Amino acid sequence: MTTITGVSVHDVRFPTAAAGDGSDSINKGDYSATYVELATDGPHTGTGFTFTNGRGNEITCAAVRALAPAIEGRTLDELFGDPLTFLRSVTTDVQLRWIGPEKGALHMATGALVNAVWDLRAKEAGKPLWQLLAEMPTEELVAQVDFRHIRDAITPEEAAAILDKGRVGLEDRLAQLRSEGFPSYTTSVGWLGYPDDKVRALTRQAYAEGWRAMKMKVGGPIEDDVRRARIIREEIGPDALLMMDANQIWDVDEAIANMARLAESDPYWIEEPTHPDDVLGHARIQQAVSPVRVATGEVAANRVIFKQLLQAGAIRVMQIDACRVAGVPEVLAELLMAAKFGVPVCPHSGGVGLCELVQHLAIFDYLRVGTSLEGRMVEYVDHLHEHFTDPVRTRDGRYLVPEQPGYSSDLKPESIAEFRFPEGPAWQ
Amino acid sequence: MTTITGVSVHDVRFPTAAAGDGSDSINKGDYSATYVELATDGPHTGTGFTFTNGRGNEITCAAVRALAPAIEGRTLDELFGDPLTFLRSVTTDVQLRWIGPEKGALHMATGALVNAVWDLRAKEAGKPLWQLLAEMPTEELVAQVDFRHIRDAITPEEAAAILDKGRVGLEDRLAQLRSEGFPSYTTSVGWLGYPDDKVRALTRQAYAEGWRAMKMKVGGPIEDDVRRARIIREEIGPDALLMMDANQIWDVDEAIANMARLAESDPYWIEEPTHPDDVLGHARIQQAVSPVRVATGEVAANRVIFKQLLQAGAIRVMQIDACRVAGVPEVLAELLMAAKFGVPVCPHSGGVGLCELVQHLAIFDYLRVGTSLEGRMVEYVDHLHEHFTDPVRTRDGRYLVPEQPGYSSDLKPESIAEFRFPEGPAWQ
């Protein structure tokens, strides 16, 4: 019976902004982590984080400290013995929720904390998180989900039916993944900060490495976007997939007009075409740009936004994020809704450690929830993996199955020391 | 040419939770303010705040500190010479926005800071904020609004037409307000924390004081809600208005079912029937409970949520909040959209100082935007006004027009000292 004896949080920032990596139409970030460590009276330390973009990481750190009393001194048995009470203690605290509710800095901090608890549980079980989840009894999985406010889209009974059905063929799917890996795509070729010749060179290199799906950023001057799309399409030929990502910059009508221009390069999806809260706007865009898919979700605030995107037919690709929402249990709610509505999940990744996290979620989704690889790809960005003790491994454009216990969220102590903000040597 | 020489922020909390005031189905708060003071090289200090519910106020304070560099050292002429650049410098900073975007703790802090700048401007002009806005040229008002992401609902040209039309009869409306005051309703009778006999006594007292519109909290056990509604309806007779507020607790179908039960007490509106992000859910509820009005907005994250609530016909009463969104300019966008869609605005109030703020917005709305009092009421809660230097004044259930320069947001220095958290004497 392991007790969480203390919660510590580290403000860790990597100076990526200067390099133009991660630059898009609306963000220019120093990739950062609000990094949580759970001390215990047992052999393991639970870790979790939320990804931020630099400035403001101290705010999500403050939010973790505000939430920490909900789990300090609690045992894992207590927390998981009544998972809904545990979850609501950090999502709907009678005072804290006012500064959300279930959104923004507070909810991101909730994600970091909840994920750390799940990492601890997976480590105690001696299993990678995807395996812990995939082997969990249906009843226990359903008990993790807060159905309040999503019951009009999915009921506990429907969730149970999906998860029961997911048991069929699970071993075969796992064997397949272990042999072939999980499909992915790369976002490293087309950041807005890169000049044309760098885009062409990176595209050529990625294609040579085996990538057959690549994402470019759009949302600059439309002529530039059209030109860069042509460069990439020239390099990858007609069969490889080209995804586009506007990072929320466009108005609804602007998105429709610009996608009419970009259609010549045969985009597979348009990601974040407009404001992330605009369910009705995404629905209008999806209708207008079809057969191009609308994809969004990396900054979708919570399961209620995802619920509506699905109900409105506003997306044909659902992009979950591992740590913007309230961690594993809220992601589980999102995966279940996607399965019910028949929309493939392609997790958002990149940043700091998002690849490390979402591989577990994508694998669990395939094994037990969505049970298909059709239209499924995990984003891959080749940044900052060297700071993790259990970094992602890829081969020929596919993620290999992680096998170490936990959620692959442990940062190396020397990386924390080096990049701690503002006192770490990297920031002097 | 006044320069903002420094930004300071105070964590001010009032221990209201113990009294049961402000308790509802989901909140139990120590009413608090993230209180901002702008030091200048001139005679005035700008003040602004965002209201929070106790725990977490340190997080919004941290967010103010993160945003402060955007205005420190700037002159009012610079900020208002290019208002959209000023606004976006605090709503879409390339790093900070990630922990919103435009929502939650960061956006609330933005509201506090932006409101402080507007308070300073109004003080410099020697006018109450409502008057500064009501007299402003149409072109300058339109220039304050960020139309990005709402252009599909309202264009700058449509906004200008509304504001130009609002000039007609403005003097008459102002004379009327100065003579009669602005209609309001009281929320002090039916908090969930109050027993039945206290509800009856408070209702009787409020009716005797002249209130003809009162709000009760619902969202407890439905039998209790039905019984309490009957008590209030008995006391106020058939003609006075009874509003109900569920504070987001219900699922969509639960809201519809419960309102069918509560219909016997002839509610005027049902406020926050479900999750504040659920545009589609509110639309379904509005359709089902009509002719009862659906009202929401006090925790609507931003203008994009309001846009959709209006586009979807999901609300028949729009409840703006003065400081959850990015202050005066974002509220202006919301008022303009409400006018275009023909939905009356009834500002959210109560908390700490919300009455003081929203009276300016409601008066401006009547004078220049909505230009009607039909269906318009400002919430009134009789809490904590004694801590403000220019508190609201009411007579016979109506707000009197504030006449002092500024946004009525100055807390008394002795109140700040007494209730400062955690070091103030009130918290020892």
Automatic annotation (TrEMBL), chains A, B:
Pfam families: MR_MLE_C, MR_MLE_N. The keyword Magnesium applies. InterPro entries: Enolase-like_C_sf (IPR036849), Enolase-like_N (IPR029017), Enolase_C-like (IPR029065), L-fuconate_dehydratase (IPR034610), Mandel_Rmase/mucon_lact_enz_CS (IPR018110), Mandelate_racemase_C (IPR013342), Mandelate_racemase_N_dom (IPR013341), RHMD-like (IPR046945). SUPFAM superfamilies: Enolase C-terminal domain-like (SSF51604), Enolase N-terminal domain-like (SSF54826). SMART domains: MR_MLE (SM00922). One of its GO terms (molecular function) is L-fuconate dehydratase activity. Its EC number is 4.2.1.68. It catalyses: L-fuconate = 2-dehydro-3-deoxy-L-fuconate + H2O. GO terms for biological process: amino acid catabolic process; carbohydrate catabolic process. Residues 196-292 form the Mandelate racemase/muconate lactonizing enzyme C-terminal domain. It comes from the Bacteria. Its cofactor is Mg(2+). Keywords: Lyase, Magnesium, Metal-binding. Gene3D superfamilies: Enolase-like C-terminal domain, Enolase-like, N-terminal domain. It is an enzyme of class 4 (lyase). The keyword Lyase applies. PANTHER family: ENOLASE SUPERFAMILY, MANDELATE RACEMASE (PTHR13794), MITOCHONDRIAL ENOLASE SUPERFAMILY MEMBER 1 (PTHR13794:SF58). This is L-fuconate dehydratase.
